[in-house]
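Researcher: I'm comparing several assemblies side by side, and this is the next one on my list. It has 680 residues spread over two chains. Same procedure as the others: predict the full complex and return the structure.
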Amino acid sequence: MPSEKMQIVATVGMRDRQKILALNGPLTIHTIFNFQTAVREESTAAVIIDFSGVPFMDSAGLGALVGARVALQKTNRQLAIAGLNTPVKALLDMSKVSSFFRIFTTVEEAQAALA
Amino acid sequence: MSADQDTSIELIAPDRSRQTVRVAASPFLIGRGSDSGNHLQLNDRRISRQCAAIISEGGQYYIENRGQKLGIFVNGEKTDHRQLNDGDVISFGLADSYEIIFRSSSNGAVIPDMMTLIGKMPDTQTTPGTGAGLSKLNLLLEASMLLHSTLPLQAVLSTVLDHAIAVTDADRALLLEPDETGKLQPRFARGAGLVRLPSESFSPSQTALRMALEQRSSIITEDLAQADSGLQAAQSIVSQQLRAVVVIPLYAGGRTLTTESGTRHRGDLLGALYLDSRRRAAFSKLDRQILDALAVQAASILDNARMVERERQRQRLEQEVNIARDIQQALLPRGLRDFPHLKVAGINIPCLAVGGDYFDVFKMADGRTAFLIADVSGKGLGAALLTTMLQGALSGLMLGADPAPMFRHLNNFLCEHAEVGRYATVFFAILHNDGTLEYINAGHPSPLLLRSGDATEPFTEGSCPVGLLPDVEYRVASIKLHPEDTLVLFSDGITEAVDPEDAMYGIDRLRALFAGRVDPALDYLQQTALASLREFSRGASQADDITLLLVRYQPSAEEAAAASQ
């Protein structure tokens, strides 16, 4: 199996009340708990998830990502995702959930857009 | 008296206190007062001054009546002269008076464990009669048989306590087991006479317990009046007027390791046997050896019983899973028959005992045929539960309900119970007799449409999976099938199957497999797909369930004619 470990690095964004969570590793059933904890710990108005270090995502990862989106929406906060590779984007598309996310090519674009 | 004999009597006074006296002379005279030169003086006016004598002759001991008017009784039988065996109870025909237990034990042999004790049994049997030593060995034998018994743990441990009481002649016995923090807690208690005591009311001497655990060895105190001062002063011992305390820590692995610094135990602490008495105790060397051997047995029983219990639990769980699997397999359409205008083949291979995938084909009340494939996120029992619930809900569509509101309802139901933490992708389709296919694709990979040798994915129109996002709309889309059109519905366990190098099978490979084939039998297609998957994965273990459903539209001649008009 490919490495089932994921590191998450949290940094502050260019603008106020933005937080960037850079994921490094696959987002799968083995790593979603880390992911969920990291998202829960954030209380900023906007959270950008940097997927450029995520090689793939499974159905549990998709569930966790949608869960994060729903949780932030409930508290009127924004979620954006950036740096998706082709397999990850394909899973979002196939599952018809792409339209529920603000998806950006790069983290910089996401930061600029989430004013 | 021979050197390897340690002969004594245990004197039980009218107040039930006990005292051990060596039988150091022959004849050994018993009677009231000292006037008659009695070795054992009994203070009861009903007992004659010259009462009885114990005589040693040729290595055997005998009791003789020397003038006790009411008679001498051995084990309740009146006698004037009789041979004594270990454990025989001598009484004087009086209520509330003295009793004497004759003790004669072999002393020379080191008895390290039960097997040695059992090995000695033929020797013991060559001597006539059965004594207390043998009956104690029997306790050990029984204990060892319990190892192989199928009694509940509670019963086995109760018996161990009863045996320990029998060996030590204690008032009560307690089994303690460590709690999560490792502190020993009373588990249950037994009293002399095979009675059950409430363990809560039993406050064992914590000092004695601590000493036993610190030393990792048994604490056997015959008489606290002469014991280690720390133990003597211990509060519970004083307040409960205890005279004798035995603590035997029980360790996994059973075996005792004897070193020069004493007896040490290895292995995890399983618990402790605790016995106490308000009377002074007297343990012969054999008693102690039997007690040690019994403790080894007790630890084995505890260890074994726990393993058995764990194994039973595992088996129960396995049984439950097997039942779940049987139910799930039984819920799949059995012996997929062909429907009037639909040929069907399907297979579901869960990667665990139960799966998160399922497919179904059913005829609706209005004559149309519905088929679907569903894939619940995750796998195993959790996914299977949701799968089965989903199947029940969707089978309701058989009655002709409108699928879109049904999906909305299912989706919101699952989102409201977000703790379930799972969602499902579903491809659901209803085939009209004229070839019109209405479908809802809830986040499932598009089935392949095989038409005239081409394999395409036309069912991309769709909504997101059920249970993922609340208040999603599910739309019904429609496509027209031609006669002999074949749909390949599959779960991502197929496209995401991996080879040993972690390469994925992929949709392209699946499409290529089916492309260029015109009208082969569905069973053949299914077999080909599974063979291709097997060949690709080269034995690599698969992480997901594999489900394949093939349906082919085959209208009757009239329907085909009607459809083409």
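Model: For your comparison table: Helices of chain A lie at 32-41, 59-74, 86-94, 107-113.
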